[in-house]
Amino acid sequence: MNEPHLLKQTLRAVMAGQQRAAADPHRPLWHLAPPVGLMNDPNGFIQFNQRYHLCYQWNPLACAHGAKFWGHWSSADLVNWQHEPLALAPVEEYESHGCYSGSAVDDHGVLTLVYTGNVKFEQGRTAWQCLARLNPQGEFDKLGPVLALPAGYTGHVRDPKVWRHQESWWMVLGAQDSDLQGKVLLLQSPDLQSWTLKGEIAGSGLGGLGAFGYMWECPDLFRLADQDILVVCPQGLAAESYRYLNTFQSGYFSGELDYDAGHYHHGEFHELDHGFEFYAPQTTASDEGRRLLIGWMGVPDQEEFYQPTIDHGWIHTMTCPRELSWQAGKLFQQPARELRQLRSCARTFNGEAASLPELDIASAEIDFAVNGEFSASFAGILQLHCDRLGLTLTRSNRRSGETEHRYWRGTVTHLQILCDSSSVEIFINHGEAVMSARYFPGSQPQLRLQGHSMLALHHWSLKRCVI
Ligand code: FRU
C-alpha cells in the first residue's frame, strides 16, 4: 500500500479510537497497551542514551493480526512511558505483509533496528531481514534488506535478535527448515550489513531434543552469570498434564555457546511463565548491567479466550518489566525494582486467611510468606489454589464456559502478586517462577482469601502511570 495513504489511515484510526480505548474500565493503569488496535510482541527493547526504548508489533487498524507496524514507547525509568511517533510502517515491497519482530542495537551511537520484512504470496511467503536507523529528526530511515532466506528453510525465518560480542555482531533467527522442524540459526557480521550463517544452534531434533515443534519464534540469546541463556518460543509442542498448556510456549535453555564453532551445548527446555498469557518476550541489558525482560501478555491463536477490550477498540498488554537472575541453576524473574515507585497506601493484614478482609486489587501489589494451604479468588473469576503440590490457577473460558487450569509444581514459600485492572502476575518464591494471566473483572475488584493458614500480608495500591 502506498505510504502516505497508510500513514493517514493509521493516524485516523488512532485519533478516532484512542479516547474510547482510554475510557475502557479494563484499560491497564500501569501496564503498556496499544492506543488502539492489536499489540503483540515487544520489539527493539534497548537502553540507549540513558533512555529505554520499547517498540511493539502493532496493527493499529484492527483488533486482529494483519500487516504489522512497529509502535514505539520510550521511558527514563521503565515506569513512566511516552508514546513516540510510529517507528516502522509496512510500506515497502520487501515488507508488504508486515514489519515483523526484531531488535535494536547501538551501532556506533546510532539506534539501529533489525527486523523481518514479511512478504506473503498467493502461495507461500518469504522473509527479509532488514535494517532501519534513527535519524536526527527522530524518524527511522529504512536501509532495506540485508539478508535473504537462507537455503534449506521455508519462508518462516524471522525475529532477528542482534548483540555485540568480541568485535562482531551476532544474530539469532527463528526458523523452520525444509523438513518443517523449528530451529534457531546463529549468524555473524562485521558491520550489520553482510551476514554469515554459522549454523543451527538449537532446534527440533538437535541437542538431545526429539521432535520439538514445527517453528521456533522470537529467539533471544544472552549471557547471565556463567550461562548462555537462549529464550525461544517453539510452536507445536503437545500439551502435557502440567505443562505446555497454552497454544504456544515460551521458555529457555541454559548452556554454553561456542561462537567459533557455532555450537550451543544446552540443557532442557523450561517454560518461562506458567500462567495463561505469556509469549515472545524480549530482553535487554541496562546500562548498569541488569538483564531486563518484557513479554507479551498474550498468546498467538489463543482466541477462544474472548477479551472484551475489543469492544473498546484495543487488545492485549505487555507484562511488567522483569529483572532476570541466575540462581541455583534456574532463571529467576522479579518485577523490575523501579516498579516500587508505584506503591502507595501501604497496609498490612495478619490472621487466618479466611478471616482477612477483602482486598482491593484494581491496581495493587500483595506480598506474603506462605506456610500452608489457602485459596485466593480474584473478583470471583480467577482462582488461585495453593497446596503442598504447588499452585493451580483456574479460569473459566469466556467463550466456551469451560474451566481451565494452569499449574506450577513445587513448594511455595512466598508470593508477590501484581494486579492491574485486567491482569495478574504472580511471582513465586521471589522469582523462581511466574504465572501471568489476563482477566476482566467488574469495577472495584476484590481478592478474597480462604483457608486456615496464618498469613501476614503486605498490600499496596499501585499508582496510575500510563493512559
Ligand atoms: C510472534 C510472531 C513473530 C512475528 C510476529 C508477527 O508472536 O508471530 O514470530 O515476527 O509475531 O506479528
From TrEMBL:
This is Sucrose-6-phosphate hydrolase. Pfam families: Glyco_hydro_32C (PF08244), Glyco_hydro_32N (PF00251). It is found in: Cytoplasm. SUPFAM superfamilies: Arabinanase/levansucrase/invertase, Concanavalin A-like lectins/glucanases. Belongs to the glycosyl hydrolase 32 family. It catalyses: Hydrolysis of terminal non-reducing beta-D-fructofuranoside residues in beta-D-fructofuranosides. Pathway: Glycan biosynthesis; sucrose metabolism. PROSITE patterns: GLYCOSYL_HYDROL_F32. It is an enzyme of class 3 (hydrolase). NCBIfam families: scrB_fam. Keywords: Carbohydrate metabolism, Cytoplasm, Glycosidase, Hydrolase. The keyword Ribosomal protein does not apply. SMART domains: Glyco_32. InterPro entries: ConA-like_dom_sf, GH32_Enzymes, Glyco_hydro_32, Glyco_hydro_32_AS, Glyco_hydro_32_C, Glyco_hydro_32_N, Glyco_hydro_beta-prop_sf, Suc6P_hydrolase. GO terms for biological process: sucrose metabolic process. Enables the bacterium to metabolize sucrose as a sole carbon source. GO terms for molecular function: beta-fructofuranosidase activity. Residues 412-443 form the Glycosyl hydrolase family 32 C-terminal domain.
